[in-house]
Every structure is written in structure tokens, then in C-alpha cells.
Amino acid sequence: MKRCVWVTKEQLYIDYHDKEWGVPVYDDQRLFEMLCLEGAQAGLSWWTILQKRENYRLAFDHFEAEKIVQYTDEKVQSLLSDSGIVRNRLKIQSVITNAKSYLKMKELHGSFSNYIWNFVENKPIINHWATKEDVPATTELSDRMSKQLKKDGFKFVGSTICYSFMQAVGMVNDHTLECFCHPSNNFVDTKNI
């Protein structure tokens, strides 16, 4: 079974690739979690964050924005001493800031999913890349999304982070053509993660 060449032999990475990456996500809380995790990845590898994902869920109350917006300075200090996450004050603070913006967008658009999926007109973009070198790090769409998210108060949402986020939550399917997960290979996973 052929996979995208970036997948390592680590089972956690294989499972992430096979069951999550590129699969459309419409659940508000999962979308918020992935946006925060992609922001945490800035300057690091996704593998680093993926290994810490369960720790992040515990540290940030399973990404329940309503709880996160209540975080005090004491909570921030405890997060800064948590070795299970990336201990970067700006990244930790961005989750709190993003929780506020997330709740605002949820209120304005009926759901965060409505807000975020509107960038791709509510339909996943299926690309047909032959090699991983063909896959862009940013696009005009990720530039636009980044600009709008920043305008709406989000942090750690540069164009590269936005494009990685879109790939992760299935707004964009960038599995290469030879990968068994590419839609042209008749792989269908209706599980909404």
C-alpha cells in the first residue's frame, strides 16, 4: 500500500496520515484544536506536535474554548512549566486569544465550521499532485485566509500555517496521486474526525 512519501514508519504518523490528514472535519471543537496545534507547530515539525497532541488536549481542557477564555495568569504559568507541550509564552497566549476569536466567529456565523469552510465555498479542494515537491507551502487561498483570520483577531495564522491547517482538516486534499488515500484511488473514509 503506497502512502505519501512524507509518512515515516512510526505508527502514530501512519495512523494520522491514513485516518485524519485530508479527511474533511466539520466539528467546531476539532477544527479549533487543529488550528491551535498548527499554530504550535510554527518553527517546529508536525511530528513534534503530533507526539504531544494528547498532552495538549489535557493541558488545554480538550480545547473547550469556553474554558480557555477563562484562563488566568496562574494557569498560563502552569502551562509554561508543562513539559508535555511547547513551552512558548506567545504560542500559549495565542490559544487563549484564538479561543476568544473562535467564540466570536462561532456566534457571528452560526458555527466555526461555517466560518472556516466558507473559504473553500464549503467543498474540499482535491488536488492532483504527482510528487511531494509539487505540493505548495502556501497558495493565494491560504494568503487570503491568513489575512482574514488575522483581521478577525487570530494569532499564529500565517499563510503556511493556514495551508497546513487546510490540509489537515480536509479543506484541501493534498495526498499525492500514488497514495492510496487520494480520492482517485477509490479510498473512501466517511468517518468525520
Explained architecture:
The chain is mainly α and 193 residues long. The chain has helices at residues 11-19, 28-41, 46-59, 65-68, 73-80, 89-109, 112-117, 140-151, 159-168; strands at 125-126, 172-173. The protein has a two-stranded parallel sheet with strand order 1-2. It is globular.
Summary keywords:
two-stranded parallel sheet; mainly alpha; 2% strand; 9 helices; 193 residues; globular; Endonuclease III, domain 1; single chain
In short:
This protein has 193 residues and is mainly α. It is built from nine helices and two strands, in the order H-H-H-H-H-H-H-E-H-H-E. It comes from Ureibacillus acetophenoni.
The strand order across the widest sheet is 1-2
Indicate the structural class. Answer: mainly alpha
Give the overall pLDDT as a whole number. 95
How far the N terminus sits from the C terminus, by CA atoms, comes to: 22 Å
Number of helices: 9
Helix content: 40-55%
CATH architectural group = Orthogonal Bundle
Layout of helices and strands:
Elements: H1 11-19, H2 28-41, H3 46-59, H4 65-68, H5 73-80, H6 89-109, H7 112-117, E1 125-126, H8 140-151, H9 159-168, E2 172-173
Helix pairs in contact: 2-3, 2-6, 2-9, 8-9
